[in-house]
Design brief:
The complex is a heterotrimer of chains A (301), B (417) and C (270). Chain B contains 20 helices and 11 strands. Chain B is α/β, with parallel strands linked by helices. In chain B, α2 links the parallel β1 and β2. Classes of the chains: A mainly alpha (301), B alpha/beta (417), C mainly alpha (270).
């Protein structure tokens, strides 16, 4: 008995010891800031004065009087809902480049290349692509005779957000692809081979082997994509700064504007908390619906 | 395997070395930190400032920082919270109002009163642009305000000979010059730069006591509708309402814009992109009525500064006399010092003659400055007002509805804490 | 082997690649010509291309010094990520009390975007005495949740029989992680390296906020020099972006072989 207990304790010690360093970093740089925001959201605070207790003033302001907040929340939800498109595309491409086609290295590299580019360059180029008068997209559309006047993509209240989403998918597709490729590596090729020998077609192999075994990676992509939607600050900020009006403002860009351009850190903190709780709630719900955590499937079985 | 091991060792060594070198050292001497706004290429002039400053204060070291406009306030405010705010700051537009209103800046009124040899060199109309609540917080570092650039080639093509003399003429000319990829009119929109279009029609943003919105009038509705219509038709390029700097100026440089409403620095920027720009092809004039929004840069002192008197000496060096001249030459701008500007005009006439007509406009109509209200909540008011204006200009809402919503929002901003 | 035609795959991939490349072509073209991207009509071929802008970038900013700083910071981040994430990923493959809570905690950390943490992170870094240092720039990203889960997925895919065999042989747990499991997770390591490198290499706002000493700046911070109001720096700006992009690409290319199916798995099993 004693031996088993000791072994389990040693095991537990090791497990916690292994979690400790990353946990420490997250505590310092994510959790503590979150708590700071929490405290701040209940105060009237400025860098030059002592804080005063504000109760729920900021929350009231945000939820009842701030149109921009609701617009930003709605925009973030839309961005979130579009994540599956990017993931599906990335999955499609990942599976294709995972086959034995010649030059798959090149394809893989080309698709991936968009990800490490500095967002500033991505933003400027896409602004140009979408330009109403001199942009490439309108040029092509007009040359093909599909339209006769340029479409003001980024200046239109209705089209701006979808356009930003397209640019965002372009940028992030390489990232999803890498995660999925990594997951595809975890599937032993022997499974494919034995299935091929048994006479399974490519589509059947995809359905019966790839998809189920890739589920953890797909789920991971999903989670990342969703979270990316409300933390993806850079591209929106460079392309449209949340405009026109607040049509492309995400919660995170709006929070940033309020904090650093309007110097209202206390109000921004309140929005941060709401942002966090809302999406945490969503995540927990989704988790329940999916029946458990991002678990893996034991290949040995 | 061997490569793996070697790589591991290399990485490990890097890691260890990095941690060893990862310790900060503290500064024990007297320092004043200067934070400039997007002028990293301004080196020699800054060195001159430091040399001149050290003649009076040999014991104080000057630390220089420079940040681009988009990150400037993020950086500055983080430093303020951390208690290490830069002492002397170069601020664009109306951002300083927030800091002044919250007590974050040193009041310079007594210094200005005391040092009359300095103060009498500065344009009084410009100097009062940094007065809040009766106190003067800043002095001009370099000055600029909006003007109307026009593409003489596009004018000729449309059969026009002179720049427009009224609002209606402006819109009419814009229409005449717009076709295909060309637009008749473009304006910058940040920091209230578009305001002259409204001011020339008698629109006021706020009541004189700055307590209530005053813009929701039938006249404003009329003006807004006219602007929106011109935008819909493409006579006013839509980027006027959504672009920042590169897009509007880049478009003018590409020769596709008939009239550009921007401030003086735009000239040298788009000229550097467009070899076709010269006195025969691009004209510089005032918008009808002579109204303009200033977008000058000022120098201010943070409240946390430990040596405000010394800081004030630095500010004087940078904004007047030889120091100001160095800045003017180094950044191709006019300064707040009357005498220095005369010298600068001589310099520009000799070295960059093309920019002289542009710079001349900067010192005319100083009584028709608009678009800068000494309101503490300037940024918030802008946030409440501009998106509504955009929605009307880009056809999302009717002008009437947009202005009504804007009025509600602006009044709320002014009323609440 | 697999009996399906390759040409439809090629067709699709070529189409996708072309779409993905369009923005690139323009960035690259403009870096060679510095032309006004707002001129009309747009042309795909560069007029008078030259490499002058690339040279310009090298001299306009202290490129080499920034490069060295970036390399040091990224090296710290990559190494730290591999070690810390592998450790955490391993722990998540075991069962223990509080595992669910940790996972929820990790996921919620992912939902705290960097921008809302700037001020407290700065204050914390100040307390740790790490302002203006490479370690200070590296610390907040020394571990990332995404990569922890990538490792977890990879570890979960290792046959339990192998691990049990090693246990029975008396191998201590830490050895199992670093000597047995890690070598079998080459693609997870590669993913970690690529992502950690890119995130730290392109990191702009954090170094901007904590570095006051010009000599400590990293590469992305040099960007500001090409976005001034006074001069036209489009060509140099794009050349700069391409130059900053290259190391990330190189790292990706170097780890290509980790993504080739079959090779690693086969070798390990033998």
């Amino acid at each position: 008995m004693q031996l088993i207990k000791k072994k389990r304790t040693r095991e537990l010690l090791l497990i916690w010891f292994f979690i400790a360093p990353s946990l420490a970093i997250f505590t310092l740089y994510r959790i503590v800031p979150l708590l700071w925001n929490g405290v701040l959201s209940l105060q009237f605070w400025s860098p030059y004065k002592l804080p005063e207790f504000a109760k729920l003033y900021h929350y009231e302001e945000m939820l009842f009087y701030d149109d921009a907040f609701w617009q930003a929340l709605w925009n973030t939800i839309i961005l979130m809902a579009s994540a599956p498109i990017g993931i599906a595309l990335a999955l499609f491409i990942a599976v294709l480049v995972d086959t034995q086609v010649r030059g798959r290295n090149i394809y893989r590299t080309i698709v991936f290349m968009s990800y490490p580019v500095m967002t500033v360059a991505v933003g400027i180029i896409w602004q140009w692509l979408y330009n109403e008068k001199v942009g490439l997209i309108n040029y092509v559309l007009i040359s093909l005779g599909i339209i006769d006047r340029g479409i003001p993509f980024l200046e239109s209240f209705d089209l701006a957000l979808p356009c930003v989403i397209v640019a965002s998918i372009w940028q992030v597709i390489g990232f999803y692809m890498i995660i999925l490729l990594s997951g595809l590596q975890n599937i032993p090729p022997s499974l494919y081979e034995s299935a091929a020998i048994d006479g399974a077609t490519a589509w059947m192999r995809f359905q019966r082997i790839t998809l189920p075994l890739l589920k953890p990676s797909i789920f991971l992509c999903f989670v990342i994509g969703i979270i990316n939607s409300f933390t993806n600050f850079d591209l929106v900020y460079v392309m449209t700064q949340g405009g026109p009006g607040h049509a492309t403002d995400l919660l995170i860009t709006y929070i940033y504007t309020v904090a650093f351009k309007l110097s209202k850190f206390d109000y921004a903190a309140a929005m941060t908390i709401v942002n966090f709780l809302f999406f945490l709630g969503l995540a927990l719900l989704a988790n329940k619906a999916a029946g458990g955590e991002a678990g893996a499937i034991d290949v040995g079985k | 395997m061997k490569i793996d091991r070697t790589l591991t060792w290399v990485f490990g060594a890097f890691f260890a070395l990095a941690i060893i070198f990862g310790t900060a050292t503290a500064q024990a001497e007297k320092t004043l930190t200067v934070l400039t706004w997007n002028i990293p290429y301004f080196q020699d002039g800054f060195t001159k400032w430091v040399t001149d400053f050290n003649k009076i204060h040999p014991d104080i070291k000057i630390e220089r920082l420079d940040k681009k406009g988009t990150e400037w306030s993020t950086f500055y405010q983080t430093q303020v919270v951390a208690g290490t705010a830069p002492d002397i700051i170069d601020v664009q537009g109306g951002l300083w109002l927030e800091y002044a209103a919250k007590g974050g800046l040193v009041d310079l009124t007594s210094y200005l009163k005391r040092d009359q040899d300095y103060t009498k060199r500065i344009y009084p109309e410009i100097l009062k642009g940094w007065v809040y609540d009766g106190r003067n917080y800043g002095v001009p570092l370099y000055i600029s305000k909006t003007l109307l650039f026009y593409n003489k080639l596009m004018f000729k093509e449309a059969g026009l000979t002179e720049p427009p003399k009224s609002f209606d003429e402006l819109l009419e000319y814009a229409r005449k010059m717009s076709k295909g990829e060309k637009s008749g009119f473009m304006t910058l929109n940040f920091d209230w730069l578009y305001w002259p279009l409204l001011a020339m029609n008698g629109v006021e943003l706020l009541t004189p006591d700055l307590k209530k919105a005053a813009f929701n009038t039938p006249k404003t509705v009329e003006v807004l509708e006219a602007l929106a219509k011109a935008t819909q038709e493409g006579a006013i390029n839509k980027i006027s309402w959504t672009g920042r700097w590169v897009e509007p100026n880049g478009a003018f440089a590409a020769g596709t814009i008939g009239m550009l409403h921007a401030h003086a620095p735009a000239f040298l920027w788009f000229k550097s992109k467009a070899p076709w720009v010269n006195e025969d092809t691009v004209g510089a004039t005032h918008i009808p009525g002579g109204w303009s929004t200033p977008n000058s840069h000022s120098m201010l002192i943070s409240k946390s500064c430990k040596y405000p008197d010394a800081a004030w000496d630095f500010v004087k060096i940078a904004t007047s006399g030889e120091g100001a001249y160095a800045l003017g030459v180094g950044t191709n701008n006019l300064t707040g010092d009357k005498i220095v500007n005369e010298q600068l005009f001589e310099y520009f006439t000799k070295n960059i003659p093309a920019v002289v007509p542009v710079l001349k406009t900067q010192l005319e109509y100083l009584d028709k400055l608009c678009g800068n209200w000494p309101a503490a909540k300037d940024a918030e008011i802008k946030e409440a007002f501009y998106p509504e204006l955009q929605s009307a200009l880009l056809g999302q809402k009717s002008a009437k509805a947009a202005l009504a919503d804007a009025e509600k929002k602006v009044n709320r901003v002014l009323r609440k804490r | 082997m697999h009996k399906y035609p390759h040409w439809p795959i090629h067709l699709v991939l070529v189409f996708v690649s072309a779409l993905m490349l369009v923005p690139f072509i323009w960035v690259f073209k403009t870096s060679l010509t510095g032309e006004n991207i707002f001129s009309y009509p747009p042309s795909i071929l560069p007029k008078d291309p030259h490499f002058f802008y690339y040279v310009d970038v090298w001299y306009t900013i202290p490129f080499f010094r920034y490069l060295v700083n970036s390399v040091i910071v990224s090296a710290i981040v990559v190494v730290a990520n591999i070690i810390l994430n592998a450790m955490a990923g391993y722990s998540l493959t075991r069962e223990f009390v509080g595992k669910k809570a940790i996972i929820v905690l990790y996921l919620s950390c992912m939902m705290i975007p960097f921008q809302v943490t700037i001020i407290p992170a700065y204050l914390i870094t100040k307390e740790l005495g790490l302002l203006n240092t490479h370690l200070g720039m590296a610390l907040p990203v020394c571990s990332t949740i995404v990569c922890i889960f990538v490792f977890k997925a990879s570890f979960d895919a290792i046959p339990k029989s192998l691990i049990d065999a090693a246990r029975i042989d008396g191998m201590p747990d830490w050895k199992i992680v670093f000597r047995l499991m890690l070598p079998l997770s080459k693609s997870a390591i590669a993913t970690n390296v690529i992502l950690a490198f890119i995130w730290s290499w392109n990191n702009f706002l954090w170094p901007l906020v904590i570095i006051r000493d010009q000599n400590m700046q990293t590469l992305p911070l040099g960007l500001s020099r090409f976005l001034t109001v006074v001069e036209d720096t489009t060509g140099a700006l794009y050349a700069f972006c391409i130059m900053v992009l290259l190391p990330g690409l190189i790292i990706f290319l170097l780890s290509q072989k980790e993504f080739i199916a079959g090779l690693t798995k086969g070798a390990a099993k033998g």
